[in-house]
Design goal:
The protein has 407 residues and is an alpha/beta fold. The protein contains 13 helices and 17 strands. The protein has a nine-stranded mixed beta sheet. It has a six-stranded parallel beta sheet with strand order 3-2-1-4-5-6. Strands 9-10 form a two-stranded antiparallel ribbon. Helix 5 packs antiparallel against helix 11.
Amino acid sequence: MKKEIAIIGFGEMGKRHAKDMHDHSKGEVRIVAVCELDDKKYQEGVEWLGYSPERFSSVLEILDNTCLDGAIIASPNHTHWDALQHFEGKSIPLIIEKPLDSTYEKLLKIVDFTERYSAPIMVHHVMRYAPIIKKAKELISDGILGKLCSFRFNLNGGGGHMHNFRRNKLSGGGQMLEKATHDLDIMLHLMNSSPKRVAAICKQQVFGGDKSDTLCCSDCDEKESCMMYTKRGETNSAIKDINVSKDLCVYAKSANIPDNELCMIELENGTFGSQTNSFFIERYYTRVYEIIGDAALMRICLTGLPYETQKSYQGKLEVFPRRSEVQEIEFEYENRIHYNSSPGVFEHFYNLMCGKTTKVYSPVDEALAAEMIAIAAYRSSELGKYVIIKDILPDNLKTSFSSIFQK
């Protein structure tokens, strides 16, 4: 069944969504409209997609001139609500890129909008759709770990996001909200519970400084000696859709977000654990989750081995019972971004557009739960104490928040 969709924001993520939808549907889904003001980004997206969707200057212009089966909001974080609000009164299935937006106030506006919107809205918490995560969820639901007790989630990454709008708290929201939200969402998804309270230490230890906010790596006199130099337009040849289109200086005055974070979390079901992130180690990208039950421990290693010894981009799911044999399952996703989750995202959104399902697998309220951990973490780091999430929620969400994952 052919479907026509629009992409709001045709940059880094927008062109990825467009190509995924076209390729996985074998042309059944066609991108008929995009909203993108930047000429270069539009042309890059066209080159990737292989054809030229009609280009519009605003969401309203798209809605006035097209008849859509779906739309994807993939503009920068701080513009998601600005785009979404124009769909008021429509009934068009939507994907919103994560995070929902970059500020607490806009997150709440999106939640309120979703409650009155008549069509499905799914959040692009893409890692939920990865086969390795789906298998982990299945095993945990089958009781392989026994009673769930605690968790440890860890991410070590480089500073690539610090070269663009994400380096600023107002436009990006901070890495706990922007990047680690992936991990926080998986944490809640697997533990099947909303967060209760959070304590965190979030510090800026490497990035930021006194450089000009307009300085780019390509124009810098110190680029030959700078550890964070990046070449604009540099593309990972193995994974086509990782492209550095910005090379803003990571030591600029406006680079004001933490780059090293530790968060302790207690969930409503009594389980507890930690999430740690660092974003300045370029040669050691690791993403490892551990979930501990009273019968076994599950280890989900998404990143394989460190770069120097990594032979292929693959992950491993391991279950360590108390006495019986260790269970190991490997997942290869060479050249497939986000652990080969894109086919699952496409299939689910296509089914939502076709009316084959109305239940959203990555809904807005569960995205809010993950993002509230980030909001609470930054407040906790400033205050130096635990933050109880219900205490910072508006009254209309206090009752329902704790049971989001039990519906």
